[in-house]
Design brief:
It is a single chain. With about 425 residues, the chain is an alpha/beta fold. The protein has 2 domains: about 140 residues, Aspartate Aminotransferase, domain 1, CATH 3.90.1150.10; about 240 residues, 3-Layer(aba) Sandwich (Aspartate Aminotransferase, domain 2). It is built from 14 helices and 13 strands. Strands 2-8-7-6-5-3-4 form a 7-stranded mixed sheet, sandwiched between helices. A 4-stranded antiparallel sheet has the order 9-10-13-12, with helices on one face. The protein has a two-stranded parallel ribbon with strand order 1-11.
Protein backbone atom coordinates (compact mmCIF):
# COMPACT_ATOMS: atom_id res chain seq x y z
CA UNK A 1 0.00 0.00 0.00
CA UNK A 2 2.84 2.37 0.87
CA UNK A 3 6.50 2.56 -0.10
CA UNK A 4 8.60 3.75 2.84
CA UNK A 5 12.27 4.52 3.35
CA UNK A 6 13.92 3.90 6.72
CA UNK A 7 15.89 7.11 7.14
CA UNK A 8 15.56 10.47 8.83
CA UNK A 9 15.35 12.14 5.42
CA UNK A 10 12.60 9.73 4.39
CA UNK A 11 10.59 10.56 7.52
CA UNK A 12 11.04 14.27 6.98
CA UNK A 13 9.95 13.95 3.36
CA UNK A 14 6.73 12.24 4.50
CA UNK A 15 6.15 15.17 6.84
CA UNK A 16 6.67 17.66 4.02
CA UNK A 17 4.04 15.82 1.98
CA UNK A 18 1.57 15.73 4.89
CA UNK A 19 -1.32 18.18 4.39
CA UNK A 20 -2.12 17.99 8.13
CA UNK A 21 1.42 18.59 9.37
CA UNK A 22 0.82 22.20 10.43
CA UNK A 23 -1.85 21.17 12.96
CA UNK A 24 1.10 19.96 15.03
CA UNK A 25 1.87 23.61 15.71
CA UNK A 26 -1.52 24.15 17.34
CA UNK A 27 -0.46 22.07 20.36
CA UNK A 28 2.03 22.43 23.19
CA UNK A 29 4.61 19.64 23.20
CA UNK A 30 6.28 18.46 26.43
CA UNK A 31 9.96 19.32 26.79
CA UNK A 32 12.87 18.19 28.93
CA UNK A 33 14.72 20.41 31.40
CA UNK A 34 16.77 21.89 28.57
CA UNK A 35 13.72 22.81 26.49
CA UNK A 36 14.10 19.98 23.97
CA UNK A 37 10.84 18.49 22.70
CA UNK A 38 10.13 15.02 23.96
CA UNK A 39 8.76 12.33 21.63
CA UNK A 40 5.13 12.23 22.76
CA UNK A 41 3.30 9.05 21.70
CA UNK A 42 0.77 8.80 24.51
CA UNK A 43 -2.36 10.42 23.06
CA UNK A 44 -4.23 7.21 23.83
CA UNK A 45 -3.90 8.12 27.53
CA UNK A 46 -3.88 11.93 27.51
CA UNK A 47 -3.91 14.19 24.48
CA UNK A 48 -1.72 17.28 24.26
CA UNK A 49 -3.01 20.72 25.15
CA UNK A 50 -4.22 22.87 22.23
CA UNK A 51 -2.70 26.34 22.35
CA UNK A 52 -6.21 27.78 22.13
CA UNK A 53 -7.38 26.11 25.35
CA UNK A 54 -6.11 28.80 27.71
CA UNK A 55 -7.87 31.62 25.86
CA UNK A 56 -11.11 29.63 25.76
CA UNK A 57 -11.06 29.09 29.51
CA UNK A 58 -9.83 32.61 30.17
CA UNK A 59 -12.83 34.03 28.33
CA UNK A 60 -15.17 32.27 30.76
CA UNK A 61 -13.14 33.44 33.75
CA UNK A 62 -13.38 37.02 32.48
CA UNK A 63 -17.12 36.72 31.97
CA UNK A 64 -17.57 35.16 35.41
CA UNK A 65 -15.59 38.06 36.88
CA UNK A 66 -17.56 40.65 34.90
CA UNK A 67 -21.10 39.27 35.04
CA UNK A 68 -21.34 36.85 37.94
CA UNK A 69 -24.56 34.87 37.62
CA UNK A 70 -25.65 37.02 34.67
CA UNK A 71 -22.98 35.24 32.63
CA UNK A 72 -25.57 32.53 32.05
CA UNK A 73 -27.25 34.98 29.69
CA UNK A 74 -24.77 37.77 28.92
CA UNK A 75 -21.36 36.10 28.64
CA UNK A 76 -19.76 36.23 25.21
CA UNK A 77 -20.72 32.53 25.02
CA UNK A 78 -23.77 32.39 27.33
CA UNK A 79 -23.56 29.54 29.81
CA UNK A 80 -27.19 28.50 29.64
CA UNK A 81 -26.90 26.94 26.16
CA UNK A 82 -23.11 26.41 26.37
CA UNK A 83 -23.20 22.64 25.82
CA UNK A 84 -25.04 23.26 22.54
CA UNK A 85 -21.98 25.04 21.13
CA UNK A 86 -20.13 21.69 21.20
CA UNK A 87 -22.83 19.40 19.83
CA UNK A 88 -22.39 19.70 16.08
CA UNK A 89 -18.61 19.36 16.16
CA UNK A 90 -18.80 16.35 18.49
CA UNK A 91 -21.50 14.77 16.35
CA UNK A 92 -19.18 15.12 13.33
CA UNK A 93 -16.38 13.39 15.22
CA UNK A 94 -18.45 10.37 16.28
CA UNK A 95 -20.80 10.16 13.31
CA UNK A 96 -24.10 10.89 15.00
CA UNK A 97 -26.95 13.30 14.41
CA UNK A 98 -26.91 16.43 16.54
CA UNK A 99 -30.07 15.19 18.26
CA UNK A 100 -28.29 11.96 19.22
CA UNK A 101 -25.14 13.41 20.79
CA UNK A 102 -24.51 15.20 24.07
CA UNK A 103 -21.32 16.25 25.89
CA UNK A 104 -21.83 15.60 29.60
CA UNK A 105 -20.44 13.95 32.75
CA UNK A 106 -17.48 11.59 32.64
CA UNK A 107 -17.13 8.23 30.94
CA UNK A 108 -18.18 5.71 33.58
CA UNK A 109 -20.97 7.97 34.86
CA UNK A 110 -22.38 8.03 31.34
CA UNK A 111 -21.95 4.27 31.03
CA UNK A 112 -24.02 3.75 34.18
CA UNK A 113 -26.70 6.16 32.95
CA UNK A 114 -26.92 4.26 29.68
CA UNK A 115 -27.15 0.89 31.39
CA UNK A 116 -29.93 2.17 33.65
CA UNK A 117 -31.86 2.82 30.44
CA UNK A 118 -30.70 -0.04 28.24
CA UNK A 119 -29.82 -2.96 30.50
CA UNK A 120 -33.24 -4.23 31.49
CA UNK A 121 -32.97 -7.94 32.36
CA UNK A 122 -36.23 -9.79 32.08
CA UNK A 123 -37.10 -13.48 32.02
CA UNK A 124 -34.38 -15.49 30.37
CA UNK A 125 -32.79 -12.41 28.79
CA UNK A 126 -30.46 -11.27 31.59
CA UNK A 127 -26.87 -11.49 30.37
CA UNK A 128 -24.29 -8.87 29.41
CA UNK A 129 -21.50 -9.63 26.93
CA UNK A 130 -18.13 -7.86 27.24
CA UNK A 131 -14.49 -8.52 26.31
CA UNK A 132 -12.52 -10.50 28.89
CA UNK A 133 -9.79 -7.88 28.56
CA UNK A 134 -12.07 -4.84 28.67
CA UNK A 135 -10.81 -1.79 30.49
CA UNK A 136 -11.27 -2.52 34.23
CA UNK A 137 -13.70 0.35 34.82
CA UNK A 138 -16.07 -1.09 32.21
CA UNK A 139 -16.00 -4.49 33.91
CA UNK A 140 -16.62 -2.94 37.31
CA UNK A 141 -19.54 -0.98 35.88
CA UNK A 142 -21.27 -3.92 34.19
CA UNK A 143 -20.69 -6.19 37.17
CA UNK A 144 -22.22 -3.62 39.50
CA UNK A 145 -25.24 -3.23 37.22
CA UNK A 146 -25.80 -6.99 37.23
CA UNK A 147 -25.61 -6.99 41.04
CA UNK A 148 -27.92 -3.97 41.20
CA UNK A 149 -30.60 -6.09 39.56
CA UNK A 150 -30.07 -8.81 42.14
CA UNK A 151 -28.39 -11.18 39.71
CA UNK A 152 -25.29 -13.35 39.98
CA UNK A 153 -22.31 -11.99 38.01
CA UNK A 154 -20.86 -15.47 37.43
CA UNK A 155 -24.07 -16.52 35.67
CA UNK A 156 -24.86 -13.30 33.81
CA UNK A 157 -21.55 -11.92 32.54
CA UNK A 158 -20.28 -13.40 29.28
CA UNK A 159 -16.61 -12.59 28.65
CA UNK A 160 -15.24 -12.88 25.13
CA UNK A 161 -11.72 -14.33 25.09
CA UNK A 162 -9.24 -14.79 22.23
CA UNK A 163 -8.40 -18.26 21.05
CA UNK A 164 -5.55 -20.01 22.92
CA UNK A 165 -2.21 -18.55 21.85
CA UNK A 166 -3.84 -15.44 20.34
CA UNK A 167 -4.16 -11.93 21.74
CA UNK A 168 -6.95 -10.35 19.67
CA UNK A 169 -10.53 -11.48 19.26
CA UNK A 170 -11.57 -12.84 15.87
CA UNK A 171 -14.62 -11.18 14.32
CA UNK A 172 -16.23 -14.52 13.54
CA UNK A 173 -15.79 -15.68 17.16
CA UNK A 174 -17.59 -12.59 18.45
CA UNK A 175 -20.51 -13.17 16.11
CA UNK A 176 -20.64 -16.89 16.92
CA UNK A 177 -20.78 -16.13 20.65
CA UNK A 178 -23.59 -13.61 20.11
CA UNK A 179 -25.58 -16.23 18.20
CA UNK A 180 -24.83 -18.95 20.75
CA UNK A 181 -26.12 -16.86 23.67
CA UNK A 182 -28.73 -15.01 21.63
CA UNK A 183 -31.95 -15.50 23.57
CA UNK A 184 -30.18 -14.89 26.91
CA UNK A 185 -28.47 -11.64 25.88
CA UNK A 186 -29.90 -8.43 27.28
CA UNK A 187 -26.91 -6.25 26.40
CA UNK A 188 -23.72 -6.39 24.33
CA UNK A 189 -21.31 -3.76 25.64
CA UNK A 190 -17.88 -3.77 24.03
CA UNK A 191 -15.04 -1.30 23.86
CA UNK A 192 -15.06 -0.42 20.18
CA UNK A 193 -11.26 -0.01 20.18
CA UNK A 194 -9.52 -2.17 22.77
CA UNK A 195 -7.26 -0.18 25.08
CA UNK A 196 -4.60 -2.91 25.35
CA UNK A 197 -4.26 -4.28 21.83
CA UNK A 198 -5.59 -1.34 19.81
CA UNK A 199 -8.00 -3.69 17.99
CA UNK A 200 -10.88 -1.83 16.32
CA UNK A 201 -14.02 -3.98 16.29
CA UNK A 202 -16.44 -4.24 13.38
CA UNK A 203 -19.23 -2.27 15.01
CA UNK A 204 -21.68 -2.65 12.17
CA UNK A 205 -21.61 -6.44 11.99
CA UNK A 206 -21.66 -6.79 15.79
CA UNK A 207 -24.66 -4.48 16.03
CA UNK A 208 -26.54 -6.24 13.24
CA UNK A 209 -25.88 -9.64 14.79
CA UNK A 210 -26.86 -8.45 18.25
CA UNK A 211 -30.10 -6.92 17.01
CA UNK A 212 -31.02 -10.12 15.17
CA UNK A 213 -30.76 -11.90 18.51
CA UNK A 214 -32.92 -9.28 20.23
CA UNK A 215 -30.13 -7.68 22.27
CA UNK A 216 -29.31 -4.03 22.89
CA UNK A 217 -25.84 -3.09 21.58
CA UNK A 218 -23.69 -0.35 23.09
CA UNK A 219 -20.02 0.61 22.84
CA UNK A 220 -17.43 2.28 25.03
CA UNK A 221 -15.64 4.50 22.51
CA UNK A 222 -13.03 5.94 24.89
CA UNK A 223 -10.24 4.82 22.55
CA UNK A 224 -12.28 5.45 19.41
CA UNK A 225 -13.57 9.01 19.64
CA UNK A 226 -11.17 11.27 17.73
CA UNK A 227 -9.16 8.22 16.69
CA UNK A 228 -11.28 6.26 14.20
CA UNK A 229 -14.45 6.93 12.21
CA UNK A 230 -17.19 5.60 14.47
CA UNK A 231 -20.26 6.31 12.28
CA UNK A 232 -22.48 5.62 15.27
CA UNK A 233 -25.73 6.52 13.53
CA UNK A 234 -25.03 4.62 10.32
CA UNK A 235 -23.81 1.62 12.32
CA UNK A 236 -27.18 1.71 14.10
CA UNK A 237 -25.77 1.20 17.60
CA UNK A 238 -28.21 1.73 20.44
CA UNK A 239 -25.89 3.82 22.58
CA UNK A 240 -22.26 4.77 22.99
CA UNK A 241 -20.15 6.61 25.54
CA UNK A 242 -16.66 8.11 25.39
CA UNK A 243 -14.21 10.35 27.19
CA UNK A 244 -12.58 13.43 25.67
CA UNK A 245 -9.16 13.59 27.33
CA UNK A 246 -7.45 11.00 25.11
CA UNK A 247 -7.56 11.61 21.36
CA UNK A 248 -9.94 14.55 21.89
CA UNK A 249 -7.35 16.56 23.86
CA UNK A 250 -9.66 18.20 26.42
CA UNK A 251 -7.45 17.88 29.49
CA UNK A 252 -7.11 15.45 32.40
CA UNK A 253 -10.41 14.15 33.74
CA UNK A 254 -12.46 16.30 31.38
CA UNK A 255 -16.00 15.63 30.23
CA UNK A 256 -17.25 12.66 28.27
CA UNK A 257 -19.91 12.26 25.64
CA UNK A 258 -22.93 10.15 24.95
CA UNK A 259 -24.80 8.90 21.88
CA UNK A 260 -28.40 7.68 22.03
CA UNK A 261 -29.89 6.35 18.82
CA UNK A 262 -32.79 8.50 17.64
CA UNK A 263 -35.21 5.57 17.76
CA UNK A 264 -34.91 5.54 21.57
CA UNK A 265 -35.01 9.26 22.25
CA UNK A 266 -38.75 9.83 22.35
CA UNK A 267 -39.61 6.46 23.87
CA UNK A 268 -40.93 7.53 27.28
CA UNK A 269 -41.20 3.92 28.42
CA UNK A 270 -37.41 3.71 28.68
CA UNK A 271 -36.35 4.12 32.34
CA UNK A 272 -33.69 6.66 33.14
CA UNK A 273 -32.12 8.58 35.99
CA UNK A 274 -33.26 12.17 35.58
CA UNK A 275 -32.12 15.64 36.52
CA UNK A 276 -33.31 19.15 35.86
CA UNK A 277 -30.98 19.82 32.91
CA UNK A 278 -32.71 17.09 30.93
CA UNK A 279 -36.08 18.80 31.40
CA UNK A 280 -37.87 20.87 28.74
CA UNK A 281 -35.82 24.05 28.28
CA UNK A 282 -38.91 26.23 28.01
CA UNK A 283 -40.23 25.26 31.45
CA UNK A 284 -37.00 24.22 33.20
CA UNK A 285 -37.09 27.17 35.57
CA UNK A 286 -40.74 26.67 36.41
CA UNK A 287 -39.37 24.37 39.12
CA UNK A 288 -42.75 22.81 39.93
CA UNK A 289 -43.39 20.82 36.75
CA UNK A 290 -43.20 17.05 36.37
CA UNK A 291 -40.20 15.88 34.37
CA UNK A 292 -40.68 16.63 30.69
CA UNK A 293 -37.71 15.19 28.77
CA UNK A 294 -36.05 17.18 26.01
CA UNK A 295 -36.68 15.23 22.76
CA UNK A 296 -32.97 14.72 22.11
CA UNK A 297 -30.05 12.99 23.83
CA UNK A 298 -30.02 16.05 26.11
CA UNK A 299 -32.79 14.37 28.09
CA UNK A 300 -30.13 12.18 29.77
CA UNK A 301 -28.40 15.26 31.26
CA UNK A 302 -28.56 15.57 35.02
CA UNK A 303 -27.01 18.85 36.11
CA UNK A 304 -25.98 22.10 34.47
CA UNK A 305 -22.62 21.64 32.75
CA UNK A 306 -19.17 22.61 34.08
CA UNK A 307 -18.36 25.53 31.80
CA UNK A 308 -14.59 25.65 32.35
CA UNK A 309 -14.22 22.01 31.37
CA UNK A 310 -16.54 22.45 28.40
CA UNK A 311 -14.40 25.36 27.21
CA UNK A 312 -11.40 23.03 26.88
CA UNK A 313 -13.47 20.46 24.98
CA UNK A 314 -14.63 23.20 22.61
CA UNK A 315 -11.05 24.37 21.96
CA UNK A 316 -10.09 20.90 20.74
CA UNK A 317 -13.27 20.32 18.74
CA UNK A 318 -12.62 23.49 16.76
CA UNK A 319 -9.38 21.93 15.55
CA UNK A 320 -11.14 18.68 14.65
CA UNK A 321 -13.70 20.70 12.72
CA UNK A 322 -10.95 22.27 10.62
CA UNK A 323 -8.94 19.10 10.08
CA UNK A 324 -11.88 16.70 9.51
CA UNK A 325 -12.11 13.25 11.09
CA UNK A 326 -11.92 11.49 7.70
CA UNK A 327 -8.67 13.29 6.84
CA UNK A 328 -7.25 12.48 10.25
CA UNK A 329 -8.16 8.83 9.90
CA UNK A 330 -6.39 8.62 6.53
CA UNK A 331 -3.24 10.12 8.01
CA UNK A 332 -3.45 7.88 11.08
CA UNK A 333 -3.55 4.79 8.89
CA UNK A 334 -0.41 5.89 7.05
CA UNK A 335 1.35 7.03 10.21
CA UNK A 336 0.68 3.72 11.96
CA UNK A 337 1.72 1.76 8.87
CA UNK A 338 5.00 3.68 8.83
CA UNK A 339 5.63 2.93 12.50
CA UNK A 340 4.86 -0.75 11.87
CA UNK A 341 7.32 -0.77 8.95
CA UNK A 342 10.06 0.72 11.10
CA UNK A 343 9.51 -1.73 13.96
CA UNK A 344 9.48 -4.71 11.60
CA UNK A 345 12.60 -3.39 9.87
CA UNK A 346 14.54 -3.86 13.11
CA UNK A 347 14.42 -7.62 12.40
CA UNK A 348 14.48 -8.28 16.13
CA UNK A 349 12.94 -11.62 17.09
CA UNK A 350 12.33 -10.41 20.64
CA UNK A 351 9.68 -7.89 19.61
CA UNK A 352 6.29 -8.40 18.03
CA UNK A 353 3.28 -6.20 17.33
CA UNK A 354 0.13 -7.64 18.88
CA UNK A 355 -2.17 -5.05 17.27
CA UNK A 356 -3.96 -6.37 14.15
CA UNK A 357 -2.03 -5.88 10.92
CA UNK A 358 -5.06 -4.82 8.87
CA UNK A 359 -5.58 -1.04 8.89
CA UNK A 360 -9.37 -1.31 9.24
CA UNK A 361 -8.96 -3.46 12.35
CA UNK A 362 -6.86 -1.05 14.39
CA UNK A 363 -6.80 2.54 15.56
CA UNK A 364 -3.87 4.95 16.00
CA UNK A 365 -1.97 2.56 18.26
CA UNK A 366 0.56 -0.21 18.06
CA UNK A 367 1.09 -2.44 21.08
CA UNK A 368 4.65 -3.71 20.97
CA UNK A 369 5.35 -6.87 22.95
CA UNK A 370 8.94 -7.43 24.03
CA UNK A 371 10.00 -10.94 24.98
CA UNK A 372 11.83 -11.31 28.30
CA UNK A 373 11.46 -7.61 29.01
CA UNK A 374 10.33 -5.86 32.14
CA UNK A 375 9.52 -2.24 32.90
CA UNK A 376 13.20 -1.32 32.94
CA UNK A 377 13.12 -1.17 29.12
CA UNK A 378 10.23 1.31 29.24
CA UNK A 379 12.03 3.33 31.90
CA UNK A 380 15.15 3.45 29.72
CA UNK A 381 13.34 4.81 26.66
CA UNK A 382 11.48 7.26 28.89
CA UNK A 383 14.80 8.57 30.23
CA UNK A 384 15.88 8.96 26.60
CA UNK A 385 13.07 11.34 25.71
CA UNK A 386 10.09 9.11 24.82
CA UNK A 387 6.67 9.42 26.45
CA UNK A 388 4.74 6.24 25.68
CA UNK A 389 2.86 3.78 27.89
CA UNK A 390 3.78 0.51 29.60
CA UNK A 391 1.26 -2.26 30.25
CA UNK A 392 2.15 -5.28 32.31
CA UNK A 393 3.69 -7.66 31.78
CA UNK A 394 5.64 -6.81 28.60
CA UNK A 395 3.84 -4.37 26.28
CA UNK A 396 4.72 -0.82 25.24
CA UNK A 397 1.69 0.99 23.82
CA UNK A 398 2.58 3.61 21.24
CA UNK A 399 -0.02 5.98 19.78
CA UNK A 400 1.05 8.11 16.80
CA UNK A 401 -1.74 10.69 16.79
CA UNK A 402 -2.62 12.31 13.48
CA UNK A 403 -3.28 15.82 14.79
CA UNK A 404 0.12 16.43 16.32
CA UNK A 405 2.51 13.53 15.70
CA UNK A 406 4.90 13.45 12.78
CA UNK A 407 6.55 10.71 10.78
CA UNK A 408 9.83 11.92 12.23
CA UNK A 409 8.45 11.26 15.74
CA UNK A 410 7.94 7.63 14.73
CA UNK A 411 11.43 7.37 13.25
CA UNK A 412 13.05 8.89 16.32
CA UNK A 413 11.09 6.61 18.66
CA UNK A 414 12.13 3.41 16.87
CA UNK A 415 15.76 4.49 16.96
CA UNK A 416 15.54 5.05 20.71
CA UNK A 417 13.81 1.68 21.15
CA UNK A 418 16.44 -0.11 19.07
CA UNK A 419 19.24 1.51 21.08
CA UNK A 420 17.89 0.13 24.33
CA UNK A 421 16.94 -3.26 22.93
CA UNK A 422 20.61 -3.71 22.12
Amino acid sequence: MYSFENSLNGAQQLDREDALFLYRNEFYHPTDDKGNKLIYLCGNSLGLQPKSTASKIDQELKDWKKYGVEGHFHAENPWMPYHEFLTEAMANVVGGKTTEVIVMNTLTVNLHLMMVSFYRPKGKRTKIMIESDAFPSDKYAVESQIKWHGLDVSENLIELSPRPGEVCLRDEDILNQIEEHGDALALIMLGNTNYYTGQFFDMKSITECGHKQGAIVGFDCAHGAGNVELNLHDNNVDFAVWCSYKYLNSGPGSLGGCFVNERHITDKSIPRLTGWWGHNKETRFGMRDDFDPIPTAEAWQLSNPPILSMASVWASLEIFDKAGISNLRKKAIKLTAYLEYLVNDLNNNDISIITPKEAHRRGSQLSIQVANADKSLYEAISADGVIADWREPDVIRVAPTALYNSFEDCWQFVNVLNKHLK
